[in-house]
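Batch manifest, entry 17 of 40.
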Amino acid sequence: MLHLGMYEKRRRPSSEIARYRLLLKELRRRLGVWSRLEDLGVVVEDPLTIYVAPEAKVGPGTIIRANTVIKGQSVVGSSCELGPNTIITDSVIGDESRVIASVVEGAVLGARVHVGPYSHIRPGSHLEDDVRIGNYAEVKNSHLGQGTMVNHFSYVGDAHVGRGVNIGAGTVTCNFDGKEKHKTIIGDGAFIGSGTMLVAPVRVGKGAVTGAGSVVTRDVADGAVVVGVPARPLRGGGPEQKGGR
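Output type: structure tokens
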């Protein structure tokens, strides 16, 4: 078998041999990375399907599951869970956070943040501690305060969201008017009902509530309850909307 293998190797095109050499070089590099991670107390579930950049840092007790890629200058804290099917690029992931079947790029995640499955955290985003991003959500260039939840099918772009905010399924920050991007501001403890369209620039005050399916085109005062298209204050539900476009 040894001689047959040598004969087959001689018969292979030089380009194919070059590819094998590159593959062996990459496998040796990965073995070095896996050894380093193991020494740090990182658990790699399926070494043959993961990629960790040499410059990336991963804390002890973190689990890296199958088909996970950690690229660039990423820093992952301790006791995290990444994957399966996750891509982390040039991002900071806080301790005890979980990113499942999702993409995080150019973002900062605090401690105990949960992302996924099937969500996308885009550049410029900062998720404070205990934020939860559920399935099929996208966050772009936004700041989300501690304990805020974006659980299903939502887009949050160019927004500043306070603490303890609940953003219902199907909510969209309508941040682009065809020419420029505009900012959405949501105060602490606000409740954004399912299917709400927030037409930026707009501000939703602290503790305010938007009814399901509302289209918010004007600022909502603290504690107000608004419903409808366009959204208007619910009778007896709080102060009038004010300002806006």
